Amino acid sequence: MRNVVVTGIGLVTCLGHTREEVGNRLLNQEHGFVRYPPFISDSKVPISVAAPIPEFETVSTDPEDWTFPPELRFRMEQLRSFSPNALYANFALTRAVADAGLELDQVSDPRTGLYTASSGSAMMTHYNMDRMKRVGPLRCSPLGIVGSIAGTLNFNLAAAYKIHGSTSGFVSACASSGHALGFAWDEIALGRQDRMIVVGAEDFTPETIVPFTAMRVLSENNDPNTASRPFDKHRDGFVGTGGSVTLILESEELASERNAHIYGRMKGWGQATDGYHVAASHPQGKGLSRAIELAIQYAGWQAGDVDYVNAHATSTTAGDISECRALKSVFGESGSPAISSTKALTGHALSLSSIMEASFCLLAMDQNFTPGSAHISELDPEALGLNILTQSTRTAPKKILSNSSGFGGVNVVLALEKP
Length: 419
Description:
32% helix; 419 residues; single chain
């Protein structure tokens, strides 16, 4: 089994788009939340807070109306095959490739693959289906399917960057990009590929976020400063966000040969399923605790070696409690690693969350800090006994677990190590 390292990071997040800005905001616990006008103006929508993406405006169904950073340039026929998340993903991938110091021929190489994660574009799917019903299929965009379904990242990125290696997309709700990273690790560790580009992206549009109000899992708190507060006794749901993150994974031998900067080593991963409910986590966190144990085992660690856990904790009551119980079952109630949820600052990015939070862990190791779990005024009793880090520290974690859970009780845990 070959060692796998991360050599490039590309970010499109509510906290910013550069490593320095995002790292500083994580360290200083500066959130990305606002009272979002499209929610406020709709009397039928009970939420008002969201975490929009700076410099990107993509609520229109016409890509010609989108605004994005001027450094991005696309032909109109390209834009017509995009969903908003494909737009974000192009930006993140371009930044990650540059950050890793790769040339285009190294990206377009049979030993370089591409794995992506997305739930597709609810906005574009609804628009195209509605248009088909109103005017007939022959008056719809021939690229409507390409720009709507979950595979849109694969289609657009593989074509634009001339990918020749292994390519696939992953759809497992909020664990999707964790699966993409895990299976990308497999590809390199087993020698099937030398380099994997892993991309997660999610639309930031009302159509992606608002449907969760029907499940009663979105925060109805109108204060951006307290709407997202994982592990707090008074939390009332999550806040929605979107964006994209790209990570470049390589064999450590290849990265060392080309003298690449290494952000961290991915030591392995674990996955397990609750087998309990279509949407709710197991009350005792059984699937997540098993995934944590497997990640530790495959990393070659002991539980006591882990010094930081980036929790999945979304700020929902049932989900946070389930994760607390899973963590206690693995680490006990004394000597647990530092634990925080960066969703207190970003909200929940759905299928993007795994890779986004993995990138935050890598930034923490590289920039020598551990992010705290913000906005906790009164710790939930279920979290007592765990080392919930309420303030960021200037100490870099050395062995990290990053947790993700999704619908159907799917759990993915990534093991990351400071090089």
